[in-house]
Design a protein that fits this description.
Blueprint: E1 4-7, E2 24-39, E3 42-57, E4 63-67, H1 83-92, E5 97-99, E6 105-107, E7 110-115, E8 121-126, H2 140-151, H3 169-181, H4 185-205, E9 206-209, E10 226-230, H5 238-241, H6 252-258, E11 275-281, E12 285-290, E13 302-306, H7 311-319, E14 325-327, H8 330-338, H9 342-345, E15 346-359, H10 369-377, H11 381-388, E16 394-395, H12 418-427, E17 439-444, H13 447-464, E18 470-475, H14 477-485, E19 493-499, H15 505-513, H16 528-539, H17 543-560, E20 563-575, E21 579-580, E22 601-602
Parallel strand pairs: 4-13, 17-18, 17-19
Antiparallel strand pairs: 1-19, 2-3, 5-6, 7-8, 8-10, 9-10, 11-12, 12-13, 14-20, 15-19, 15-20, 16-20, 21-22
């Protein structure tokens, strides 16, 4: 889903034990036998019970086995942002709303919602009788806690700004940051006061209410079924944001009891989604079972994630029937297509992600716009898609991908042009390639990733010549994820991207690139004209005017060239023939049908 940051880190060698599932295994059984013996010339028979070991068939269970690849950097609803993190959270938690198989926002924990006339107030009515998987009460007070926790600057959440339409949220966050950096005593005191006022406004603007309209007393109040949000501006899309993982109602007491690593244990991950996290073995396996206390349709299968980062190993395990679903890598596409059985398992369909060559705009030499332009011109997107991705993607020159509202046809700026790349370097403050400082291209370390990045390094050398000082820097995949999130990390240039949270230009432009606290702050992008256009578009109620404003903003974004737009993904998986009922969407993250896992079934009669 999905949503979300992702990086090209899939697939480095990981030592694993055998994953083969046996059809039979030894079991101890009790068995009656007749013992014949002669006693004083008389034949006597008696029955004795002896214990013997025999092989008996093991009953098959419906278990969907998925290789997810990289183990998450964290699995905290109010701190996560990468697709592999959300692929866990959306199984054992659920928001007030959710997306259905057509990516339409529908009721979830809330049965309905309503805006006031100018969309500055949003009220949710929760379903009566909601429970967590452990049978405890789930009321609006839990959602009040999770939303405020997301906004709270002390949480330091990756998606903190996604709820900044709530009254007081930016003031609380921005002034807290200002107070922490201010050395002047008077200014520091002023910032602290403004932050406190912002916090007070947030707490007054996110209110769980009982049947009598009064604020809810606690987490046990059964009639606490109303959640009212006050917004600082018109936000007619905000009911969709309330379905994102940042709203998921993790239990406050579990977070407190588990400490910093609470999310790394199934003991504390007690949620309200279609699944229960039964067991979590970091970097090895996660086991999920259907949640009997879920309000909606019950999941028909159990679920198991594995974390093999080497796609060659994963592909072989799939052929050995050790997985039901794996990602289909470009390196294995030809083999799968040529195989009579594997070719039937191929699922390739549109995705929701745009990948870019990310430049740290505040790090030399990428603080120079001409250097960024040079590397954008040097990206041979067509050859990358053809030679490396084997057609599993399409070249990209804009941020919003094809098929999503706001996609612009016919964009040509910064298309591959070796001559323009050299000219841009000549026009830069450096004047020539040999005067550029060393450039480090970092990536998640896997055998296949090393080959891919070597290919890319060779293409840059073709364009810029031997004077280019380019170093390839492989990093352990989970650590690489954490480094991308940290603006202070040593990353200089890397490949990363964004996948849709919901199908709206606001999610692509405002959420990712607007302002100094957006995700683009990691690479140091800030543009006042772009910000002004997106702020105006966010509150525009006329759909035609809104679309035009977002398009103007995207044009400004392409002009600024903070990243080298690279390619749009496709979802590509191998799925066993005994798996059925999966609703494929562009926002699938992990496996086909990720959005509506309850519809997936397994025909045990076909399973070997």
């Amino acid at each position: 889903m999905k949503n979300r940051n992702w990086s090209l880190m899939a697939l480095g060698a990981l030592a694993t034990g055998a994953l083969v599932l046996g059809a039979c295994q030894p079991q101890v059984v009790e068995k009656e036998v007749v013992v014949t013996q002669i006693v004083e010339k008389t034949v006597e028979k008696e029955v004795e019970k002896i214990v013997v070991a025999t092989a008996v068939p093991v009953e098959k269970t419906k278990l969907l086995r998925v290789n997810l690849g990289t183990y998450p950097d964290l699995i905290d609803p109010q701190k996560s942002s990468f697709v592999n993190e959300i692929a866990h959270l959306n199984k054992f938690y659920e928001g007030l709303t959710r997306l259905d198989a057509k990516l339409v926002t529908v009721p979830a924990a809330a049965e309905s919602w309503a805006y006031n006339a100018d969309a500055t107030e949003l009220t949710f009515a929760l379903r009566a009788g909601l429970m967590y998987s452990d049978g405890s009460v789930l009321n609006a007070k839990r959602f009040e806690y999770s939303i405020i926790r997301n906004i709270n600057p002390a949480t330091a959440g990756e998606y903190a700004t996604i709820t900044n339409e709530i009254m007081g949220a930016p003031d609380w966050q921005d002034n807290t940051a200002a107070a922490g950096e201010e050395t002047d005593a008077a200014k520091k005191a002023a910032a602290e006061k403004a932050a406190a006022e912002g916090e007070a406004n947030v707490r007054a603007s996110v209110q769980a209410l009982g049947k009598d309209g009064a604020p809810c007393a606690d987490y046990e109040q059964a009639d606490c079924l109303t959640l009212k949000l006050k917004l600082s501006k018109s936000a007619p899309y905000f009911h969709t944001i309330m379905g994102l993982w940042v709203t998921y109602p993790a239990k406050e007491e579990n977070i407190d009891a588990g400490g910093d690593q609470w999310w790394n244990s199934s003991k504390y991950q007690v949620g309200n989604g279609p699944y229960v996290l039964k067991a979590l073995e970091p970097f090895v396996r996660a086991s999920f079972v259907p949640n009997a206390n879920y309000w909606g349709d019950q999941a028909m299968t159990a679920l198991e994630y594995s974390y093999i980062t080497d796609s060659a190993v994963s592909f072989q395990a799939y052929q050995n029937n050790e997985f039901d679903v794996v990602g289909l890598s470009a390196e294995d596409l030809k083999t799968a297509q040529a195989d009579a059985n594997l070719s039937k398992d191929i699922n390739v369909y549109p995705g929701s992600c745009t990948t870019a060559l990310q430049f740290r705009n505040f790090t030399k030499p990428f603080d120079d716009a001409q250097v960024r332009a040079a590397f954008s011109y040097a990206l041979d997107r067509e050859r990358w898609v053809k030679d490396v991705l084997k057609g599993l993607g399409s070249p990209a020159l804009t941020w919003i991908p094809p098929g999503f509202p706001g996609f612009k046809e016919g964009e040509t700026r910064f298309a591959y042009d070796a001559d323009k790349a050299k000219a841009a370097i000549a026009a830069s403050t450096y004047g020539s390639v040999d005067k550029l400082p060393p450039i480090v291209l970092s990536f998640g370390d896997t055998p296949r990733n090393r080959t891919r990045y070597e290919w890319l390094g060779q293409r840059f050398a073709e364009v810029f010549g031997t004077g280019l000082k380019l170093e390839l820097n492989p990093i352990e995949p989970t650590a690489f994820t954490a480094m991308q999130k940290d603006k202070k990390s040593t990353l200089q240039m890397f490949i990363g991207g964004w996948c849709a949270d919901y199908p709206d230009p606001q999610n692509w432009l405002s959420v990712y690139f607007n302002g100094s606290t957006s995700f683009a702050s990691r690479i140091g992008f800030a543009n006042a004209e772009f910000d002004a256009l997106t702020v105006q578009a966010d509150v525009e109620l006329d759909n035609a005017k809104r679309a035009d404003l977002y398009q103007q903003a995207q044009d400004k974004l392409v002009d600024a060239n903070p990243v080298g737009f690279f390619w749009n993904n496709v979802n590509s998986y191998l799925v066993k023939p005994w798996v059925s009922g999966y609703n494929k969407t562009p926002q699938d993250a992990g496996y086909p049908g990720d959005i509506t896992p309850q519809t997936i079934d397994i025909d045990l009669a076909q399973v070997p």
